[in-house]
Design brief:
By secondary structure, the protein is mostly helical. Helices cover 72% and strands 1% of the residues.
Length: 501
């Protein structure tokens, strides 16, 4: 049997994707659930520490601790002391052992530490809480490299914005639960210890579901249909045996790549601004607007509810722009990153001039700031996969390791600047610093950022440097992809009329 090459090139083949809800969608949901659970245990500290230091605003039947603002700043920032340390190893662990095992172990450790916190703080005070938060950071530091590696292996390019952004929007859902529910729990019969028990329970629940349905790649999944497996394989166009290969990381090419450094700086600036908002909203509402812990938790969650909703608005808009216009992926990334950075920067400057008599305006403006910031997910957050899908986990570990130094520094700066939490002028300084960093980080991304896949992403890039490249993107590979496509169709549905005996 021979194949007419010209007829193949002229006849586009539409590959069936399988069922409407496929295993790639299930994997995206599992990633969403995981990000939600770890953000609960990461960010509930903002509300918990207020309840732990002021029992009059929570359930008074539980111990109250006398911690200074400086000690509280250590508690809030300590998570990131551990978090930045395991970012880099996280990418390699995921590549070696797979996302399923690494994420299971890391999330389970985080859950156990959350469950042990109330008992531990009783005898170790703020120092033991800092230690627990550091170890939690070490555990959770390996998770996001796994998330990106998992997305790169499961999600085709055309669905990257939709499924990738959905998975990452778990950070907004987790933030909502951490802030809104934590305030209610602290007021209830479980008191502030219940905040830690609930977050531990959510993490344990995810572990059970993940162990059942999570798989490192489509070839390993026993629940995926043949059509969906063929669709993913054809869309990604990997060489034979790709999932069993150990593709070496091109260190020299990456460390001399301009898009790589631009992305690091853009994400660092984004994380500074976002961490300032995340960690300081409860303190700002309590100190400047004089709101009790229950209202604090509810009102603090409103911006993140809006952010969660707005992330899907951005997602829909991105789909429309990609399908109805000729906008490039690079232009799309720059546009949404600008919306997610410059508009919040303006809002931060304005909010610093509001006081206790303008509570409603402060809440409205804070809600808009946080909601608009969700544009960075479609903007720079998914850019690691664009640049190098074959190295997404390690790329994420490198970028996240450096960019998460800023959330470590940000609370310390707040602790130095805000010596009186009721002083509006001191908060103005904090917000203006964050706004300036937002602005200049995005300006750099607009000028030099890109979503083009880099040459060093090629599976045989290092072999090519030695003169041994195998031309997997040539005609032979097209025939291999064609065979996958043919196998996914019934003979009566195929368009390959050029096949001759």
């Amino acid at each position: 049997m021979t194949i007419n090459k010209k007829s193949i090139e002229a006849t586009p083949v539409k590959i069936k994707k399988g069922s409407i809800l496929g295993m790639r969608h299930v994997q995206s949901f599992l990633l969403f659930f995981n990000v939600t659970s770890i953000y609960c245990s990461r960010l509930n500290i903002g509300v918990a520490v207020v309840a732990m230091t002021n029992s009059a605003t929570a359930n008074p039947d539980f111990p109250e601790f006398e911690w200074s603002e400086k000690e509280i700043s250590y508690i809030i920032s300590s998570f990131f002391w551990g978090y930045v340390c395991t970012q880099f190893p996280g990418g390699y662990l995921c590549k070696k052992f797979g996302a399923k095992l690494v994420m299971s172990v890391a999330t389970c450790i985080s859950a156990l530490l959350s469950a042990a916190t109330p008992w531990s703080v009783g005898w170790g005070s703020w120092r033991i809480l800092c230690f627990i938060r550091i170890v939690q950071g070490l555990a959770q530091g390996v998770i996001f490299p796994c998330v990106y590696e998992h997305l790169a292996k499961w999600v085709p390019l055309k669905e990257r914005n939709r499924l990738g952004a959905f998975a990452l929007s778990g950070s907004d859902c987790g933030t909502i639960l951490a802030m809104a529910v934590s305030g209610i729990i602290a007021k209830g019969p479980w008191g502030w210890p219940g905040i830690y028990y609930v977050s531990a329970g959510i993490c344990f629940a995810w572990c059970v579901i993940w162990l059942i349905f999570g798989e490192n790649n489509p070839n390993d999944s026993k629940y995926i249909g043949s059509q969906e497996r063929s669709f993913i394989a054809a869309e990604m166009a990997h060489s034979e045996g790709y999932h069993k290969k150990n593709i070496p990381f091109p260190w020299k090419a990456v460390l001399t790549s301009t898009p790589f450094y631009v992305l690091i700086l853009a994400r660092s600036c984004q994380n500074w601004g976002l961490s300032t908002i995340h960690a300081q909203i409860p303190s700002y509402l309590s100190g400047v607007l004089n709101m009790d812990i229950k209202a604090n938790g509810l009102y603090s969650s409103l911006p993140f509810i809006a952010m969660w909703v707005m992330s899907y608005v951005y997602l829909s808009l991105a789909d429309i722009l990609q399908s109805k216009t000729s906008i490039s992926l690079t232009s799309l990334r720059r546009l949404f990153n600008s919306l997610g950075s410059w508009l919040p920067a303006l809002g931060l400057v304005i909010i610093g001039f509001l006081d206790e008599h303008q509570k409603i305006w402060a809440i409205v403006l804070m809600t808009l700031i946080v909601a608009l910031n969700s544009g960075n997910i479609i903007g720079s957050a998914l850019n690691m996969i664009d640049l190098a899908p074959n190295h997404a986990g390690i790329m994420m570990s490198l970028v996240n390791a450096v960019s998460n130094i800023t959330p470590f520094i940000s609370p310390l700066i707040v602790g130095v600047v805000v010596t009186d939490v009721t002083n509006r002028t001191l908060w103005q300084i904090v917000f203006i610093i964050a706004a300036a960093i937002f602005f200049f980080g995005n300006l750099l991304y607009i000028l030099l950022g890109t979503a083009e896949t880099q040459p060093w992403n090629a599976e045989d890039y290092l072999q090519e440097k030695c003169g041994k490249r195998s031309h997997i993107h040539g005609y032979d590979n097209n025939i291999e992809i064609l065979e996958i496509q043919v196998n996914s169709f019934d003979a009566k549905d195929s368009n390959f009329k050029s096949v001759k005996k």
